[in-house]
Design brief:
- The protein has 351 residues and is an alpha/beta fold.
- It has a single domain, classed as NADP-dependent oxidoreductase domain (TIM Barrel).
- The chain is built from twelve helices and 14 strands.
- The strands form four sheets. The protein has an eight-stranded parallel beta sheet.
- Strand 6, helix 5 and strand 7 form a beta-alpha-beta unit.
- Helix 3 crosses helix 4.
- The radius of gyration is 20 Å and the shape is globular.
Length: 351
């Protein structure tokens, strides 16, 4: 059930003015590093833009000019060099300093062995043209064999596991953090059991977890777990992942492209958006931000790039539903299909 509070107090107006002045709100990680609550996601963006005769470079320029200071990429996205070029252009323009930006990249699943983590990060830094990143994540709990020709080795459309203990990988992550190659470290696509084992055996508790999260997959239990340990929570695919269906791509695959959730098309979301003269995307992002999450929507459309960012500074309404009421549907887990037989597959078994 959705209940809307449209009141606009003097305090709210002043708060909005401060947000406009500061351009971004942040969440403090448990080591004190501040992370912007809204970032620009780049997964699949280069593919979709090429199909439309544009470039990821243009989209990044628009995002940075709009006010985004948090950019999310990964080794496996194969676009770190493009991100690096865009960041350097923006820094050279004098419109921001390096410390104003928050750059996230991720450790590829083929580099989980302890002696591979630092070289992998240094390779990413070289592509990004940076001395450090702000957050380095283990992209997936599943380690797998690399291929000289492809990112992963596949047999009968299944990845070939190359099991590495998560604790070995995490220890190496702690070392690159201590060396100052990253300001924070974290995990992506891990489940509670996998996270708990790391927490119980680590020196440095993860600063962040990044997982798919939206109204059809609200991640209530995982979010509560992270709050218990003061681990910040980033939602990727916060408005769903329509690009996953459009591109039909992804290293680890999807179970059924026709079952891709479509929160943007949900009747309830559309109704709320119409009521408040906002877009469905703004409603979906606001819902997650108000829960205390970081969001990294991606878009290849200039108007939507700006709408997604400005959502945090121009809305004066709020949704008051409880976390247990906010999920319209639990949906179906549809990602990492090629890895479903991996011993470290983080979700319930797929058929």
């Amino acid at each position: 059930m959705y209940m809307i509070n449209s009141s606009r107090s003097e305090a709210n107006v002043k708060q909005t003015a401060r947000r406009i002045k500061n351009m971004e709100r942040t969440i403090a990680l448990h080591n004190g590093v501040k992370m912007p609550i809204i970032g620009f996601g780049t997964w699949l963006a280069w593919i979709l833009l090429v199909c439309k005769g544009k470039s990821l470079s243009d989209a990044l320029d628009i995002a940075l000019e709009t006010g985004y200071r948090h950019i999310d990429t990964a080794y496996v996205y194969e676009n770190e060099d493009v991100v690096g070029d865009a960041v350097q252009r923006f820094l050279n323009s004098g419109k921001a300093k390096r410390e104003d930006l928050f750059i996230v990249t991720k450790l590829f699943g083929g580099f989980h062995r302890g002696d591979e983590v630092e070289p992998a990060l240094r390779e990413s830094l070289k592509k990004l043209k940076l001395n450090y990143v702000d957050l380095y994540l283990i992209h997936t709990p599943m380690s797998f064999k690399k291929s000289d020709k492809e990112l992963v080795m596949l047999v009968d459309d299944h990845i070939i596991p190359d099991p590495v203990d998560h604790l070995e990988t995490w220890k190496a992550m702690e070392e690159v953090y201590k060396k100052g190659l990253t300001r924070a470290i974290g995990l992506s696509n891990f489940n509670i059991e996998q996270m708990q084992r790391i927490i119980d055996n680590c020196e440095i508790i993860p600063h962040n977890i990044q997982v798919e999260c939206h109204i059809y997959w609200p991640q209530n239990e995982l979010f509560d777990f992270c709050q218990k340990y003061n681990i910040s929570f980033t939602a990727y695919g916060p408005i769903g992942s329509p690009g996953r269906k459009e591109s039909r791509l992804g290293v680890l695959g999807v179970a059924d492209i026709n079952k891709e959730p479509a929160p943007l098309e949900d009747a309830v979301v559309k109704s709320i958006a119409e009521m408040h003269k906002k877009t469905p995307a703004q409603i979906l992002l606001k819902y997650l931000i108000q829960r205390g999450m970081i969001v990294i929507p991606k878009s290849t459309n200039e108007g939507r790039i700006k709408e997604n960012f400005n959502n945090q500074i121009c809305l004066h309404w709020q949704t008051d539903q409880s976390k247990n009421d906010c999920s319209i549907s639990t949906g179906t887990i549809n990602i990492f299909y090629r890895a479903r037989k991996h011993p470290d597959f983080p979700f319930e078994p797929m058929d």
